[in-house]
Structures are given as C-alpha cells and as structure tokens.
C-alpha cells in the first residue's frame, strides 16, 4: 500500500529552517520553551521539567504511531531548537467538536517570533499535508484571546466562522481560556491561494 511507503514526517530544509521529527536531544530546548511565561501566556500554566519530559515521550510515541506530531523547528545555520510547528492529529481523551481532523499547531521560543519563522514552517507542512498526505482539510485552533496565533492562521489563508467557536473540552467551563476559535483550510483554497 502506498500509505506504507510515505514518510509522513521527512526531514525538510526550508529557507532558514530544518523541520524534522522529535528526538531525545530536544528535551532541554522543550523544557526551556515550556517554562517561559511569554510562550505559555495562552495555556493554563507554564510547564515544569517533568511535564515537558512526559510531553516529549508522548510526542515521540505519537510520531511513531501516526508518522507526525507537531514536528521540531530548528535553525538551519546554528542547529538551535526554535520550537515546534507542523501537523498533528489531536488525541485528547475527550473529542473535539470537529474530530477527526488534522491540525497545524505551533509553539516557538520568543527569539524566533516576529521573523516569519512559524509561517515558513507552517507553509511547508501545509503543502506537504495537501500534496503528499492528500489531506482534504487542515484546521487550527486557539483561545479567542491569542491574537498572534490567529494572525498566523489568517496569513495562511485559513478561514474562521464564529458559529464554530467552541469550549475546549480539556478545560473547565469557567476557565478564562476555555473559549476557542477554529480556523479551517481546505485543499481547494490551498490550491488557489497558497501554492505560489
Ligand atoms: C503563535 C506564534 C507561533 C506566532 O509567531 P510569529 O512570529 O508572530 O508568526 P509568523 O512566523 O507568521 O511571523 C510574522 C511576523 O514576523 C514578521 N516578519 C519578519 N520577517 C518576516 C519574513 N521574512 N516573512 C514573514 N514575516 C516576517 C511579520 O511582519 C510579522 O510580524 P507582526 O506580527 O509584528 O506583524 C508565536 O507567537 C508563539 O510561538 N507563541 C507562543 C505559543 C502559542 O501561543 N502558540 C499557539 C497556541 S494555539
């Protein structure tokens, strides 16, 4: 079956970046990023080292099972860990209202913000998702107050509809971050606006 021969997360070099699978050596970078209050502003809390260790193990198990899990972004020149950006299949214990789906998600260290790095990585993986994995649609979601993340979704020509706003099932109903927006990009839209 063709499915078996596709590497769903190949190592890709884009202009300034290496996009690749998670490895054990990414732990220190992940720990530092997840402990940064600026990075975690729109998450319930910063993460202590032990939680990042668990997160890395989960990501590596998932990429073994599904082929990809929010791949690593690395600086091409220096090899520095910049964060993650890429495709993922959400597997929360409680399903999302729009499951099943392929999402594109991102989290970068502040030094990598404001340089178009997330956009460069996201465009590469979106192209891969539609052209190689033959995805019908790629979604992204974030809390309503995360404007930086939504601006990136808009730069990628993803579309939102307020009627699809939802409460994240993993947060308490009265949590300040519970309300989320959903952005969608289908393959026809990708073909018309993102291919060049
Ligand atoms: C969300 C996040 C990835 C967005 O990063 P970002 O750097 O703003 O996004 P982009 O890669 O699209 O970069 C765009 C910015 O770079 C600037 N830029 C500079 N050089 C550029 C270039 N060569 N190409 C494109 N944009 C460039 C743009 O002008 C824009 O700046 P602006 O936002 O001030 O207008 C980042 O803020 C982050 O990791 N946040 C913390 C984690 C988080 O909230 N994740 C999302 C949870 S759902």
TrEMBL record:
<protein>
    <recommendedName>
        <fullName>N-acetyltransferase domain-containing protein</fullName>
    </recommendedName>
</protein>
<dbReference type="GO" id="GO:0016747">
    <property type="term" value="F:acyltransferase activity, transferring groups other than amino-acyl groups"/>
</dbReference>
<dbReference type="InterPro" id="IPR051531">
    <property type="entry name" value="N-acetyltransferase"/>
</dbReference>
<dbReference type="InterPro" id="IPR016181">
    <property type="entry name" value="Acyl_CoA_acyltransferase"/>
</dbReference>
<dbReference type="Pfam" id="PF13302">
    <property type="entry name" value="Acetyltransf_3"/>
</dbReference>
<dbReference type="InterPro" id="IPR000182">
    <property type="entry name" value="GNAT_dom"/>
</dbReference>
<feature type="domain" description="N-acetyltransferase">
    <location>
        <begin position="17"/>
        <end position="188"/>
    </location>
</feature>
